[in-house]
Amino acid sequence: MAAEARGRGAATRAVALFSTWTFQNVGLRELWLRAHRDNVASQRWHRAQGFVVTHSATRRRR
Predict the structure, then answer these.
(1) For a FRET experiment, which of 2, 20, 29, 58 has its CA 20 to 30 Å from that of 50?
(2) Beta-bridge mates of residue 58
(3) Distances (CA, A) of 24 to 2, 19, 20
(4) Which one is predicted more confidently, 8 or 6?
(5) d(CA 3, CA 58)
(6) Contact (Cβ atoms closer than 8 angstroms) between residue 43 and residue 35
(7) pLDDT at 60 over 70
(8) 3-state secondary structure the chain
(9) What pTM, to 2 d.p., does this model score?
């Protein structure tokens, strides 16, 4: 995400639209995101979007 776009909800909206569409239309059962283990801000954002942080990635189940 470009610095000037951060904090405006663009990533949140994109992930919400993409995950909803894929769960409903593609039959996807899980969606995984990856963040470096030291990137606490990204992990916090993943949790706020409904993802579960695991040891290797964050995932959201249908």
Answers:
(1) 2
(2) 33, 53
(3) 29, 8, 6
(4) 8
(5) 23
(6) yes
(7) no
(8) CCHHHCCCCHHHHHHHHHHHHHHHHHCCCEEEECCCCCCHHHHHHHHHCCCEECCCCEEEEC
(9) 0.65
